[in-house]
Design a protein that fits this description.
- By secondary structure, this protein is an alpha+beta fold.
- Helices cover about 20% and strands about 30% of the residues.
- It has 15 helices and 25 strands.
- A hairpin with a 6-residue loop joins β18 and β19.
- The longest helix is centred in the C-terminal third of the chain and has 20 residues.
- The radius of gyration is 25 Å and the shape is globular.
- The chain starts with 15 loop residues before the first strand and ends with a strand.
């Protein structure tokens, strides 16, 4: 009789913490028909997830997550589980390390194949063959056989000996009908402002007339953190709520114009194209959301106020609502922006005011939700967070509707628009200049920038999942016209903003910018290190004048690539 094989010794119990806990993900359809979800872990995201999702408080442990060397010192193994609607579906999980010299191609990829049944599998770091270029934890990719489906993802890091993690605390289910939740919505209102324009739009929708609600902002308005991004984002959910409450269900148009990683400096340049749709749309309500994007605004608010006034001064007099989203560190720029709203007596909604107090309450103290429940990552809200943002906006609209005393008469905003701006409106009349939208007082001499770049930042517009390229009518230098490594333009203007393509690729070139023969600044595609649109102010004068602009590739980069996406100009 054969004796049974002795079982293996059980693995030592290790401390662990979650970096992703029961999060909704959505597989965007790829060319091969599969679905993919990206979850970025760089720029402090991983350490932030360790804090708010994993409860890690040790600064030593948090600091180790900023590099691959530290990650390997801290982490013993990675546990991953995913639940899809088909439990037997094959799912590929990849944790990509970024390279120091080659960001996307130089780092190690930690991979494991899973089934969509919620069973955890582990990646043991001791089994991994690491690469010399490894620099920092970069991004997680989840590839599903079936695209455009919602799945649940859990990722936890098991710790090496000598490191400790707190016990995992279970979160209470959110009660969206509680008195505390309703108070949270009420806390979001900074000011109802003058609601006449808003009530006019509501009445228009109620009467069955075509009504348009538009949103412009950064990645949160684009829908980042929502799964799926098109219908679970705050913009779509608040539009849908507005339509259900105030319309016949078919007479409200939805415009979503969010672009990740970009400030109001870029928003105002693309306003006619992305919000007004080249004069084919007349929004009755415009929500402006840049409170977590405008830190890089070179004018410290002039671009923002210029955008607000541009929206308010549309001939159909739309209602403008200022929306202040918030980062996981409880920060935003609403203190800079609220005076702008007050100057024109505008409705304002602060997500910061609504949720941040919640994050530090305990059960029994009126807590509605945790920081982990609200946030998807350090920058973006989860599906729950997007729902809350939408309901804060709808709460403001309901409060305006509840008090009809402001419905009659001319809005005070009309007179307030005649006041001096609180910061500035220098760029209110800025326009886009590219290969399609030309300017009669600009003579383009492209030099070696004769091509058109098709590798561009793309975004999901409106309610679609289709990716739309930003600034497709660009000027591209492909590294072959080394005898003409420059772009030149004679232009008459008082202000000029260059929109430059950032990149994380190894073949991206730096370019020096000269105005009237004087060096102004260098456009460096690696300052941000990822593919997106970067505006930079290169001319800002009190009066219009003739200028000569030259953009010249660095000598060492002549065989690399560079793209001028376009310009914003004020005559």
């Amino acid at each position: 009789m054969n004796a049974p094989a002795a079982p293996k010794d059980p693995e030592k119990r290790r401390g662990f913490f979650y970096i992703i806990k029961n999060k909704d993900i959505f597989g965007t359809k790829m060319e091969d028909g599969k679905g993919i979800q990206y979850l970025y872990q760089d720029d402090g995201r991983l350490a932030n997830s360790a804090k708010i999702t994993g409860g890690i408080t040790s600064e030593t442990e948090l600091s180790l997550l900023s590099s691959v060397e530290g990650f390997r010192k801290l982490v013993h193994s990675i546990g991953i589980s995913v639940e899809t609607k088909n439990p037997s579906e094959n799912v590929l999980f990849i944790f990509q390390m970024y390279g120091k010299n080659d960001i996307y191609g130089g780092g190690t990829e930690l991979k494991v194949s899973l089934e969509g049944n919620g069973t955890e599998k582990r990646i043991y770091l001791s089994d991994v063959t690491w690469r010399e270029d490894d620099f920092k934890p970069g991004q997680i990719k989840v590839i599903m056989e079936e695209p455009e489906q919602i799945a649940k993802l859990n990722v936890r890091l098991y710790l090496n000996d000598g490191f400790h993690a707190p016990e995992v605390n279970e979160e209470s289910e959110i009660d969206f009908n509680s008195q505390y939740y309703k108070k949270m919505l009420a806390d979001s209102i900074v000011s109802l402002g003058d609601t006449r324009r808003l009530l006019k739009a509501i009445d228009r929708a109620k009467s069955g007339k075509e009504t348009c609600i538009a949103y412009i902002g950064g990645s949160i308005t684009q829908g980042a953190g929502a799964a799926p991004v098109n219908t679970e984002c705050y913009a779509y959910k608040s539009y849908s709520g507005f339509k259900d409450k105030f319309s016949n269900g078919s007479n409200v148009r939805f415009i979503k114009a969010g672009v990740g990683g970009t400030p109001s400096e870029l928003g105002i340049i693309r306003f006619e194209r992305d919000v007004l749709r080249d004069n084919t749309a007349e929004p009755d309500i415009i929500i402006i959301e840049f409170a977590v994007n405008d830190e890089g605004d070179e004018t410290k608010g002039d671009f923002y106020e210029s955008l607000v006034k541009k929206a308010l001064n549309q001939h159909n007099k739309p209602a403008v609502i200022l929306l202040f989203s918030v980062f996981a560190n409880d920060e935003n720029l609403q203190e800079r922006m609220i005076p702008v709203g007050n100057n024109y007596n505008l409705p304002m909604v602060s997500i910061k005011n609504a949720v941040t107090g919640q994050f530090y309450k305990k059960d029994g103290e009126g807590r509605v939700l945790t920081k982990n429940q609200y946030f998807y990552d350090i920058y973006h809200p989860s599906n729950t967070g997007h729902k809350i943002m939408a309901e804060c906006l709808l709460y403001l609209m309901e409060q305006a509707e509840a008090d009809r005393s402001a419905a009659d008469g001319e809005s005070s905003t009309e007179k307030l628009l005649l006041k001096e701006p609180v910061i500035g409106n220098t760029f209110e009349k800025i326009k886009l200049l590219d290969k399609k939208d030309t300017y009669k007082k600009a003579e383009i001499m492209p030099g070696g920038f004769t091509g058109t770049d098709n590798i561009l930042q793309c975004v999901e517009m409106d309610a679609s999942l289709e990716l739309v390229p930003e600034f497709p009518y660009n000027w591209h230098y492909d590294g072959t016209n080394t005898d003409k490594p420059y772009f030149e333009m004679s232009v008459t203007c008082k202000a000029l903003v260059l929109v430059f393509k950032d990149s994380g690729e190894t073949d991206a070139a730096k370019a020096d910018i000269y105005v009237d023969g004087k060096y102004v600044r260098t456009a460096d595609p690696y300052v941000n290190g990822w593919l997106h649109c970067n505006p930079m102010l290169i001319i800002n004068e009190n009066t219009s004048g003739s200028h000569f602009v030259r953009i010249e590739i660095h000598k060492a980069d002549k065989e690399k690539k560079c793209t001028i996406l376009g310009f914003g100009y004020c005559e």
